[in-house]
Amino acid sequence: MKPNRRRLLQLGILLLGGGVGWWVARGCFPDPPVEQSLEDLYRQRIETAASFKEALPALKALYNYGDCSPEARAFLRERLLVVAREEQAVEAQLLLAETTVLDDAEETLFWWRLAATNALHPDAQFALGCSLARGYGGEYDLVEAKSLWTKAKEQGHAAAYLSLLTLGRETPLPQINHPTTAKDYFMAGLYAAAGYNQAPSPEAAEEYWGKALQQGYAEAGVFLAAIALRRGETNVAIRNLEQATKENNPAAETWLADLYLRHIATPEAKAKALELLLRASKANFAHANYLLGWHAIHSELNVPQEPFRYFRSTIEIEPSPIALYAYGACLFYGIGGEKQAPEKALSWIKRAAEEDVVAAQWLLAKMYREGLGVEAQPQLAEAWETRALKASTHPPQELLP
After folding, report:
1. How many angstroms separate the CA atoms of 335 and 76, rounded?
2. Measuring CA to CA, how many Å separate 189 from each of 168, 247, 255, 281?
3. Residue 92 to residues 57, 84, 104, 356, 385: CA-CA distances in angstroms?
4. Are 192 and 198 a contacting pair, CB within 8 Å?
5. Is residue 217 within 8 Å of residue 182, measured between CB atoms?
6. Chain center to CA of 66
7. Nearest in space to 293 (alpha carbons), one of 304, 279, 283, 285
8. Alpha carbon distance 105, 299 (integer Å)
9. How far is CA 28 from its chain centroid?
10. CA distances (Å), 143 to each of 121, 133, 194, 296, in order?
11. pLDDT in tens, 31-89
């Protein structure tokens, strides 16, 4: 009689199960490995990372980890402080602002302000603007909030644009269900990116802005370029800005010129960049004037006027902290077409230092310590050095604008 295959299979399974049980009972199999906690895993990745950039994903993961222990939180804060101060990494400054938001309003505002003014980071500008508009941490300044949102909007920050649109409105913005015109597509993209009346969707925003740009809405090109740059897609950003400049948009002209000078830098690209910056300057776009002044000092760009004139024009349009410092530095060092006059430079440099421009703080400390353009006051010098040290452990090698 032929053996029953099913019964043989069942018998084999029983014997195998018994054998495994015997081996386990004898301790011949190792104990199951203890699963490493996510917290320990993130900390290990941070400690073994070769650079801050390599450690950043693990730092963010540790911050977002719901069961993060007080010890791990202290470890996270310690690492971020080192990088934020010594390397001036804007990502670390932004993350520090988030980690302190529930603990210390003053420190949160400090890190947001630092990233917003020194690094000109749109997320920091938007967050700081929101804080000032709501009086968070005891600071209420709607004028500065509007200025910060404007700067973030010029860098393609959709939520900042919405904040400006809703400023002073008593009724909500209209719902756009079926966009048809270029402006409708642009606004629908803003709503999608900022999560207005819906969940945030960068993908949908990019699609809407693409359609708006196709119909000639230049501002959509600036927003698309900002998205591309965040992804590291410089060539895509350049293409979007090139299309936007066809509509004579000064923001697009300025950012496109900056990308030409940074990433292409051929004689043809430099000539085109100068043309774009001069066009945006005539349209009173503040940052175009600042870049013209900066390149007149630092590069071989054939800028037609003296640098200090562009810095002063920038201040007249929008007194940004970095422009205040640039003009003050021209007076202090006697460069950019200005005669050396430290006593005249003092007010400009002090205003920039009060706006947390670190280079201005170091220079102001030097002026007070050595009596340059002002009576020597060691106590004030020490105070400004202390303030600068919160952001940078060493003064920059060169304090030129």
Report:
1. 43
2. 22, 19, 20, 28
3. 11, 5, 17, 17, 22
4. yes
5. yes
6. 25
7. 304
8. 41
9. 56
10. 19, 9, 22, 32
11. 444 344 677 787 888 888 888 778 777 777 776 665 567 787 788 888 888 877 777 77
Helix (H) / strand (E) containing 105: helix 105-117
Residue position matching structure tokens 């900390």: 43
Tell me the C-alpha distance between 258 and 183, whole Å.
27
CA distances from 364 to 22, 49, 132, 349, 369 (A): 79, 37, 27, 7, 9
Dihedral in degrees, nearest 10, Cα atoms 162, 194, 157, 97: 110
User: Per-residue pLDDT for 255 more than 90?
Assistant: yes
Task: For residue 102, name the pLDDT band (cuts at 50, 70, 90).
Answer: low
Question: What's the pLDDT tens digit per position in 369-394?
Answer: 999 999 999 999 999 999 888 776 66
Q: Which of 138-142, 276-280, 318-322 has the highest mean pLDDT?
A: 276-280
Q: What is the DSSP secondary-structure string of 113-166?
A: HHHHHTS--HHHHHHHHHHHHHTGGG---HHHHHHHHHHHHHTT-HHHHHHHHH
Query: 300, exposed or middle or buried, with CB in 10 Å at 0-12, 13-18, 19+?
Result: exposed
* Lowest pLDDT segment from 14-23, 235-244, 331-340: 14-23
Residue 135 φ/ψ region, left for φ over 0, alpha for ψ in the -120 to 50 degree band, beta for the rest: left
Q: Residue 319, SS3?
A: coil
